[in-house]
Write a structure and sequence with these properties.
about 375 residues, alpha/beta, Quinone Oxidoreductase, Chain A, domain 1, Rossmann fold, six-stranded parallel sheet, 12 helices, GroES-like_sf, metal-binding
């Protein structure tokens, strides 16, 4: 099969012919329809996030079940499915406490070593040498996914666009519903209107937010944000974003601000645009060790909150986002603004690095699905 294999640090991955992976017990071989173009992968490509090489990236996938390992009962051959980027083991301390998004086994084995829970990778060269996998390693024609991480998709949802349910929308759902608890009439700001930011805007509106202010420095992203339901847009490259948000909210500030970039400066802005009792929720991934600062005096006196949000519980969030898409509460076709072929993988990630993708980009890997 064809796969995008990353061997060096840099925004490039070679299309190579590697072995079709074989699922073990409790796993599924997925014929990949599409894979999202995410900043998390870009961080690995550029070396901002340490990860072993050679590897196959891609953690936001949709496809069709091609084969099932022993013991799999929740899906069967031919099912249209999506997967969350978090592959919880179900047995570690965090999973046992009902926090599978913090799964220790996933963090240590997959996100640091590129293997599944048995300590081995499913991707291999034809000679049997391992190729490490980031989540399921979905930038390939086939990938292996633990069965408990797969969720069926109704026939009326575009399977290519559905790929974004597994990271962009899934991550936004956790931030909007589990951490911020956005409700009817709330005022919300979203800093960074790209891949995850697009989903934050759509889900905040679906949750009943009365006002959603999109903040970015790219006008084409703000135009796309308005199409997703942003009630106001602020171009931070053209003026003071904090002052603009304050003016838009009659000086009060917003109830919730989502930071979707992972930058100390935009985190400070997120805190500053919050009104009294407001909540700044950090969703963007920063380089490990990145310090941040904000006004601690105001944090205490105005009873502000600052929280981190990483994904969600797959078993609860994935069915929920699929229902939202099926019920047209969120428009996946508006979130997915750019499509590429697998052979254009380097073009896609360069476009992401250059901030040319308005919302979420996806690599269409099998046009027949």
């Amino acid at each position: 099969m064809k796969a995008a294999v990353c061997t060096d640090t840099g925004i490039d991955a070679a299309i190579e012919d590697i072995a079709v992976p074989v699922p073990s017990a409790g796993e599924v071989l997925l014929r990949v329809a599409a894979c999202g173009v995410c900043h998390s992968d870009l961080h690995v490509l550029t070396g901002a996030t340490a990860f072993p090489r050679p590897c196959v990236l891609g953690h936001e996938v949709s496809g069709v079940v091609s084969e099932t390992g022993t013991g799999v009962t929740n899906v069967r051959k031919g099912d249209r499915v999506v997967a969350s980027f978090i592959l919880p083991c179900g047995a570690c301390e965090q999973c046992a406490r009902g926090r599978p998004e913090l799964c220790l086994e996933f963090l240590v084995k997959n996100r640091r070593r590129g293997v599944l829970f048995d300590g081995t990778s499913r991707h291999r060269t034809h000679s049997g040498d391992p190729i490490w996998m980031y989540s399921m390693g979905g930038l390939a024609e086939y990938c292996v996914v633990p069965a408990n991480d797969l969720f069926t998709v109704p026939d009326d949802i575009d399977l290519v666009a559905a790929a974004v349910l597994g990271c962009s929308v899934f991550t936004a759902y956790g931030a909007v519903h589990d951490v911020a608890e956005v409700g009817l009439g709330d005022s919300v700001a979203v800093i960074g209107a790209g891949g995850v930011g697009s989903s934050l805007i759509a889900l905040a509106r679906a949750a009943g937010a009365a006002d959603v202010i999109a903040i970015d420095i790219e006008e084409h992203k703000l135009t796309a944000a308005a199409a997703l339901g942003a009630t106001r847009t602020v171009n931070a490259a053209r003026g003071d974003a904090v002052a603009a948000v304050r003016e838009a909210t009659d000086g009060r500030g917003v109830d919730v601000c989502f930071e979707a970039i992972g930058d100390p400066g935009t985190l400070r802005t997120a805190v500053d645009v919050c009104g009294d009792g407001g909540h700044a929720v950090v969703v963007g991934l920063a380089r490990p060790g990145t310090p941040a600062s904000f006004d601690m005096g105001r944090l205490v006196r105005r009873k502000l909150r600052v929280s981190g949000s990483y994904g969600a519980s797959p078993g609860a969030a994935m069915p929920a986002v699929i229902r939202l898409a099926a019920g047209a509460r969120i428009d996946l076709s508006a979130i997915v603004t750019d499509r590429f072929t697998l052979e254009e993988v380097t073009v896609a990630y360069q476009a992401l690095a250059d901030r040319k993708i308005a919302g979420r980009g996806v690599l269409v890997i099998d046009t027949r699905l």
